Amino acid sequence: xxxxxxxxxxxxxxxxxxxxxxxxxxxxxxxxxxxxxxxxxxxxxxxxxxxxxxxxxxxxxxxxxxxxxxxxxxxxxxxxxxxxxxxxxxxxxxxxxxxxxxxxxxxxxxxxxxxxxxxxxxxxxxxxxxxxxxxxxxxxxxxxxxxxxxxxxxxxxxxxxxxxxxxxxxxxxxxxxxxxxxxxxxxxxxxxxxxxxxxxxxxxxxxxxxxxxxxxxxxxxxxxxxxxxxxxxxxxxxxxxxxxxxxxxxxxxxxxxxxxxxxxxxxxxxxxxxxxxxxxxxxxxxxxxxxxxxxxxxxxxxxxxxxxxxxxxxxxxxxxxxxxxxxxxxxxxxxx
Length: 336
What we know:
Number of helices: 12
Low-confidence stretches: 54-60
Radius of gyration: 24 Å
């Protein structure tokens, strides 16, 4: 009996006993399905000398196979101040490539409002990945209004239901502060990002909880807030240490801010960690090269980027909303 000729993905799906979307993923090398299923489908395709026609596949799904990475800042270009965003961007790019998606960088002017149709209604992109804050919630509301698929890093709108990946910020603040307490420090400052940011308030709650468990009173003159910039972090650190020269530890809400704080402390004649121990947050690539090497709370940036892409693509395919909280880890180096 003559073997049926395989012409389409549907033919392979019928032979393999799986869905057409599973076949499409397998032939594009997606890691969203198991190795065993992917290898079995690819073997069937090879046996029947079938090769996926990617342009036709994209047209049939009415997709561009392009995701947009959206940031909004007043600066003309990224700098070292944005190192965390840059490293997440790299991780997102790698993950998108693994799933055969292109990535479009969208850097919005600070006050631009109705930008979503320019990218979504025209079919330029299939979905959006946002770096968010409470200052940019209008972008999320615009995406919801236009029914555009998106996922955010962080969740500045807890009352809304949408796709997001966030970090266990309260746990991170607790780990950082507990570490300083375990090293014998009692006068521990908190140098936060913008006070209204949810992740900052969660890190503060972790700091507060660790102090409480150790029987250490929370002091208002040990708490300062900046804007995640090195310049502002330096100003706030200088103000804190001037008001309380007896500070012996400081938990800083980003590595870039922490490195700036350490410069101020060095200039004031403090030794790190002998006089003041410093713990940062994020574990960006530069943290290990600081002087001294920076103890920090690691947000697994490579995994964050992967989960942002995979969960957005899963939403595009299946309509399932994902809420993921990533674990954090204390990385101990010489600054503490």
